[in-house]
Amino acid sequence: MNRTQLRGLWHLRKAGEKPREERMPRHVAIIMDGNGRWAKKHRLNVSRGHRQGTETLREIIRHTDDLGIEALSLYAFSTENWNRPAEEVAALMQLILDFFASEIDELDEKNVRILILGDKSALPEQQRAVLQEAEERTGKNTGLRLNIAINYGGRAELARAAAEIAALARDGKLKPEEVSEQTVADHLYTRGQPDVDLLIRTSGEMRLSNFLLYQNAYAEFIFPEVLWPDFTVAEYDRCLAAFGRRDRRYGGR
Ligand code: IPE
Ligand code: IPE
Ligand code: MG
Question: Is the pLDDT of residue 65 over 70?
Fold first, then answer.
């Protein structure tokens, strides 16, 4: 029985039911949005919102790992987020250090392989070193592929891929007419990983904000209203169940 026939046998499931494995996404991407509004709602400083957001992050990573999903990509800091007040940027940079200090042992123990998407060279020295170390330490792990986008922009990623491919052509290692979709995919940060199957953006905003432009080409989008610090494992399960009920057609009949 082929994939399409199998799909025909899949039945609708009631909300709240546990996601079934055969309809699980291989790659989930999350735009963790709403920390600022959460802080405002609770009359707290915005950095408290971001800190609360890292609590959600821990739970969601754990659950993704428990479910055996292959890859999880998280949008933590965009190339546009430098435009925020210096104090907020500093708080986010501090959270990067705190997050890795508290999580790296457990993640490594769980065989999670960490990859940073984005240009690390523009980050402060300390953050760069911590991220580099996390990637190196977990580089040979074979479990969940945890991609964390920091100083990431989808257009910047594509421009970088184009530059790498142009350099190969210049050096005679590749002919321009040989450049395929696969060539482009092979020069993205996510090379070797499946495309995004499910994109979740919390807080009710319905836009990509420059996240994984190439990889999201055929992703299913879900936009829960809940703010990221209030996002729960139960809500995540509902998203996964909803994904399982989507009819993915890829342009076919
Ligand atoms: C998302 O929360 C986290 C980052 C961008 C780092 P926001 O800070 O964007 O939250 P809102 O959109 O202001 O509520
Ligand atoms: C996208 O959220 C970036 C991250 C979640 C890290 P933003 O809150 O920065 O995006 P816009 O400005 O609403 O598009
Ligand atoms: Mg936002």
Answer: yes
Q: How far is it, in rounded angstroms, from Cα 61 to Cα 67?
A: 10
The torsion defined by the Cα of 4, 9, 143 and 242, in degrees rounded to 10, comes to 100
Share of the chain above pLDDT 70, in %: 91
For the CA atoms of 42, 48, 49, 51, what is the dihedral angle to 10 degrees?
-140
Q: Where are the domains of the chain?
A: 24-152+220-240, 154-193
Closest by CA to 76, choosing from 111, 117, 112, is 117
Is 90 exceeded by the pLDDT of residue 176? Answer: yes
Reference 138, options 103, 94, 188; nearest CA is 103
Pocket of ligand 1 (CB under 6 A): 32-37, 77, 81, 92, 203
Q: Which atom of ligand 2 is nearest to the CA of 81?
A: 9
Beta bridge partners of 152: 78
> Residues with beta carbon < 5 A to ion ligand 3?
33
Up-side HSE of residue 141: CA atoms within 13 Å toward CB?
A: 24
Model pTM score: 0.92
CA dist 46 and 81 (Å) reads 14
Give the class (CATH, top level) of 24-152+220-240: alpha beta
